[in-house]
Specification:
Radius of gyration: 18 Å
Distance between the termini: 34 Å
Order of helices and strands: EEEEEE
Strand content: 25-35%
Shape: elongated
Number of strands: 6
Helix content: under 10%
Largest sheet: 3 strands, antiparallel
Number of helices: 0
Length: 87
């Protein structure tokens, strides 16, 4: 997936996501091989990637009826905010 400069929309890098099958952790690797030459004159900057995930409700195990955590792929996560009601 391309990573673009917010101001100019020029390509900074490609990001490659991989998931560790053992831990379920997702890692992002940035490849700057095809950076737009116009960006090479800058002194520095911040590069980040955001991965929006939508879990499959069939794979969620609720710890209690008063939901504070969920388990995905044998890891427990705290719920910060629910955008929709969960039945």
């Amino acid at each position: 997936m391309p990573v673009l400069d917010a101001a100019t929309k020029l390509k900074i890098a490609d990001v490659i996501y991989t998931r560790d099958a053992g831990t379920g952790n997702i890692k992002a690797k940035f490849d700057f091989t095809n950076i737009d030459a116009k960006l090479l004159t800058k002194e520095g900057g911040k590069v980040q990637s955001t991965l929006l995930i939508k879990p499959d409700p069939e794979k969620i195990t609720y710890d209690s009826s008063n939901v504070a955590t969920v388990r995905l792929f044998n890891k427990t996560y705290e719920i910060g905010k629910l955008d929709t009601e969960v039945d």
